[in-house]
């Protein structure tokens, strides 16, 4: 499921788009900004079971938590931080993207997805179907979802 399997270098140099709301001088409101880039590396952080993607757009405040979309039209993850050494300014660092898997796990564990997508959600997460009683649905709710 997702990136829980080993991710090697197969995504390196593929295109990405990162979106966020960095402050823009002279703008009197928040503006959605999109930056195109590439995956430069895939790294494993100690004691973390999912990969991080190092992307080329210059890291700057306002992109943290923003989506990073792959050229293959899927959500790669979210922008987390600028990786810098010592006390260097963040613009000298690398953009770090946390893979989508931990986000998916949080959403799934808290059942934050449309009930009408429950079968697809379970298939994507576990690779098998589930029983409706897992959701404690009434007969009326089940029939509504099965329309």
Brief write-up:
The chain is an alpha+beta fold. Helices cover 17% and strands 27% of the residues.
Describe the protein's architecture and organization:
This protein is α+β, with helices and mostly antiparallel strands and 147 residues long. It is built from three helices and six strands, in the order ββββββααα. Strands 1-2-3-6-5-4 form a six-stranded antiparallel beta barrel. A hairpin with a 4-residue loop joins strand 4 and strand 5.
Q: Using the CA coordinates, give the radius of gyration.
A: 19 Å
Biggest sheet: strands side by side, in what order?
1-2-3-6-5-4
User: What class, by secondary structure content?
Assistant: alpha+beta
Measured between the Cα atoms of the first and last residue, the distance is 28 Å
Q: Work out the helix count.
A: 3
Our estimate of the beta-strand percent is: 25-35%
What is the strand and helix layout of this fold?
Layout: E1 15-20, E2 33-43, E3 52-55, E4 67-70, E5 75-83, E6 94-99, H1 101-109, H2 118-126, H3 139-145
Antiparallel strand pairs: 1-2, 1-4, 2-3, 3-6, 4-5, 5-6
Provide the descriptors you would attach to this structure in a database record.
147 residues; 3 helices
